[in-house]
Design a protein that fits this description.
The chain is an all-alpha fold. The chain has four helices and no strands.
Amino acid sequence: MNEFLSEAIGTFILILFGLGVNTGSSLSNNFSNKISNSWVMGSFGWLLAVTLGVYAAKFSVAHINPAVIIGLLTSGEISSNQAF
């Protein structure tokens, strides 16, 4: 799989899950719209979205999340010209 396709799939998964969390919290009469659950569902939902997006874009060095790039640079798994 080439890097562009991998990056596109990872971004698609990130946006799909992230917007799904936002949609679920904005709908009325559901579990994630309760006052006590809204921040928990939002936090864990976006955590899942970023994690799955990064794993899906693993072949493209996962430019989806800047924190992942910084971690890969400090561990020496990628070079600086791959990060930019």
